[in-house]
Amino acid sequence: MKQKYLPLTATILIFVLSYALCAAQYPNILSTRVIGNLLTDNAFLGIAAVGMTFVILSGGIDLSVGSVIAFTGVFLAVVLEHTSMHPIMAFALVLGITTLFGALMGMIIHYLEMPAFIVTLAGMFLARGMAFVLSIDSIPIKHPFYATLKGFYYKLPGGGRITLIGGLMLLVFAAGILIAHRTRFGTNVYALGGGTATAKLMGVPVASTTVKIYALSGLLAGLSGIVFSLYTSAGYSLAAVGVELDAITAVVIGGTLLTGGSGFVAGTLVGIFIQGLIQTYITFDGSLSSWWTKILIGALLFAFILLQKGIIHLSRDARQRA
Amino acid sequence: MQTSSDNILSAVRIDKGFPGTKALDKVDFHLQRGEVHALLGENGAGKSTLIKCLTGAYRRDGGNILLDGVEVDPRDTFDAQRLGIGTVYQEVNLLPNLSVAENLFLGRQPRRFGMVDIRAMNRKARELLSEYELKLDVTRALASYSVAIQQVVAIARAVDLSGKVLILDEPTASLDAHEVAMLFRIVRRLKARGLGIIFITHFLEQVYEISDRITVLRNGRLVGTRNTAELDRRDLIAMMIGRELAAEIHAAEAHAAEGGEPRYRFRNYGRRGRIDPFDLDVRAGEVVGIAGLLGSGRTETAEVLFGAHRADSGTAEIDGRRVDLSSPRAAIREKFGFCPEDRKTDGIVGDLSVRENIVLALQARRGWTRPISRAEQNRLADLYIRALDIRTADREKPIKLLSGGNQQKAILARWLATEPEFLILDEPTRGIDVGAHAEIVRLIESLREKGMSLIVISSELEELVAYSTRIIVLRDRAHVAELGGERITAHQIVEAIAAANERRAS
Amino acid sequence: MTSIFRTYLARLLPQLIALSAIIIAISMTFPGFLNLEIQNGRLYGSLIDILNRGAPVVLLAIGMTVVIATKGIDLSVGAVMAICGAVAASFITSGHSLFETILITLAVGILCGVWNGILVAVLDIQPIIATLVLMVAGRGIAQLVTEGAILTFNDPGLIFIGSGSFAGLPMPVVVWLVFGVLVALLVRQSALGMLIEAIGVNRQASTLSGVLTPVLLIAAYMLSGLCAAIGGIIAAADIRGADANNAGLWLELDAILAVVVGGTSLLGGRFSIAASVLGAIIIQAINTGILLSGFPPEFNLIIKAAIIVFILVLQSPRFRTSFAFLAFPRRAAKTTEQEAK
After folding, report:
1. Which residues of chain A have a CB within 8 Å of the CB of C296?
2. Interface pTM (ipTM) of the complex?
3. CATH number of the domain at A3-315, please?
4. Lowest mean pLDDT: which of B251-255, B454-458, C209-213?
5. Which of A132, A146, A280, B60 suits A138 as a labelling partner, its CA being 20 to 30 A distant?
6. CA gap B91, B109 in Å, rounded
7. Strand stretches in A139-278, DSSP E
8. Least CB-CB distance to A204: which of B93, B107, B115?
9. CB–CB of A245 and C135 under 8 A?
């Protein structure tokens, strides 16, 4: 088997195994209702994680995601409450803002040659601060269009529903997979992760690719914010704290190398499912405490970092022998 | 020669200077269509500077570059590539995490409906590589193939993109004989297609096997261009490393220490894949010079002796006592010191001051709980700044702001401060100006007179001859000859290297 | 001696100027800001409040400075604070003495540091990734210890650490002052400081010079863990309980910001603990200033973001090179030459 599929295979294996174990104990977990909920509950996280996958594939990181989600929610709530703007317009507007925001961070990272970590940390503070400035209260969104949107769903046999936002997440993943593997931009993202200097020597437009990557992450964080506001029907500046961490975790558990250059957008989806499954299991169990989620996810994270470290080590040895 | 209309690439009177040094001094270089032209010289001779000027990686200070008779001025490597000059480096400049096909077509992938047509790309990649006798799974990551295959992929990409001139910079450095043969078949095929190929290597037998002509550079100057068939191996080596073989100066007193019991005894010492097991004796007050061409295992010998790479065979004894030299710390405990070849990555701690760089090794040996007082640090720093004439505004200046020669002296000072008894110097005079050069040579002699044991690696033969009591000749990562007494002459060293070469070639 | 003092002052000057400017700006709008009064043998006033509230970030910044100097980063300190707060609360409520409780809590913090250090130094995992593991899992572990509840306690000794006073100063201030001075003395009076800087600048060259790199790296993360443990005890003592969810939440980012404001480069090397402490106090002073000025506290984050961007621009290699070319063209040219080689 090709080495690059190894982490992804491990992810899928872990998911299938743990799903089977859960199902053995609680057959209900197999129901379409649970699956539908898994999609709906993790929709915003999944969409943000797609953007994060691109950022991490390129060897960067984006800490601003959670704050951008909160900002988007508050922005929508404020706009819909105080103006007569149609939600669709508001969506377009806020996506424009978050995309620009991401692009700006990408420019600072590239042109000022500063670590993505600290630049997006500033972005994290800025976006959360802007959300606070717009409103510190949780504002409910009562626009009828929201109700309409929430009314869309695809009924699965067995009572489960694929809601609009759940479906949207799957669509975003599909688009992400296409962009990552079937466009020149996608290859360039991998190229940056393989080594910026070499990529530059080989003719990859480093500046525009970096800007596009963070713009894409901003766009998807904005989309995730829209989904989150649909999910909660509210905008709250303290919402979605730490989502960037969950997204990073999903990406790594999904088999993407945190140092960049190797991984799959599809793996991130499985990573999201694994996190969701752990939560669902703990809810089903009832006696297990919620903190096991974090400990388990931390342990999984560690296992995957070790696995990747081992693979890198092995392949280096193999090449030396060759 | 310049008149030959067959010249595909001509570089005329190329000048390139860096502050303090002249890297290229009016160098001429002519490459013909359908020839393999070897560019030779020791490190620092100006080979890579010349290549970088040709490919636009450096801006040259003077001179002209003619490609197909037309004057060109590549601004950067892309520009050179577009003009037709492609380069493949020893460190394969491709992306190991991408597939072979992606590496070949990065930035120009075939598309259908805006999407990359992966099938077409893989097909084209297979077609392209079939011209190079390569049948690969082009969808696999480049990293999963051997360096040789990666080289060929790099060549395929470079030729496909440029197609007039191909520069191969040390492509065979990490290949085995079989892989070299494969690479050479490809080079011959490209040559037959009319490409001009510049081949840089330090393997002389490969030069004789593949090249039509040879150009030798030394110290940024052109030594000459010869037809390979008419150039004797001995003369070639002399062109590369001996300045004036006639003028052999050897400090006679350097032999004084010969005889007497060896203090340091290494038996069957080595590390797999780096340096073959060797025996080495070093007496007190002796300088053992290590000679050999680039890549012969000189630095590897030094690193194994110092424990930078742990020896996996053999024993080390000091005065008959078995010692452990498995790490730099262990070696330092036995009063070893090591000035590495690559000052920037292994030597200086750039942001720290000259003072801190000088006391670093001594402090590390004492441990963090026993700090050297500031006054003592100042005393040591001033002492060595004066003794070695380190040119710095003051001892608190960050060492990265010093010139190469002064950095080298500061690293020497770092070890002298630990009062070592066994000092290993790897190319101590590389890349430093003439004045500092002479001072370091004098220093080596005075240290020997004080009874220190030294191992000195250098590609400057006169220098080795001047201060060595014995000389070890290396070849192919093995110690192949030892010269002592009257036999320490530049001529004898060249003979020894050439003999080893011939043995291998036959 | 005076010259050393002068270099020290020169190093801290930007931070001192920034802090004074902030304090002057606040006191111009709030004349009472600089007032200090003594009640029951204890100082009260906004200035003291800044020092007191800033205690956890100051402590974290001390450890973070050393870690960053080694070219690392420790994302787990917030989570370690939560773990240690939880451990302290659970031990004190289960009847252990104050002394035992503190000892064990500090040991737990150091253990967390050892874990991070081994991942970084022995397994050679990038620091940002290595410490992410504990950042994610740590809060879960803290909740495991407190069993999900806010574990309250009423041991007067432990509470004293959070809200008592000593020599007129609130205990947290006393703790970080004493600890900060101790650490600063330790690294500067021993050779630790120089060796750590050497590792941060060039790990390879340091190892070749005989520096015991892995041990020092682990020690740096241990110090960071210890700092987080003390911070955790103070945070828990302050609210008389361990809140596994919120104790130390996002403080790792504030600590990193404090180090950056203090002028220590994220790329490792030269560090100053005093400057990082000042950086932490600057951040706290801005917090307090905004609170006092009646601006909504929400602006806090925006100002933090602005500070980061400002410092980023100042520290940016590109900005520096262009500046260096203007100032010392000859020197800059030399550096490029060396890089070329």
Report:
1. 132-133, 136
2. 0.84
3. 1.10.3470
4. B251-255
5. A280
6. 24
7. 139-140, 153-155, 161-163, 234-235
8. B107
9. yes
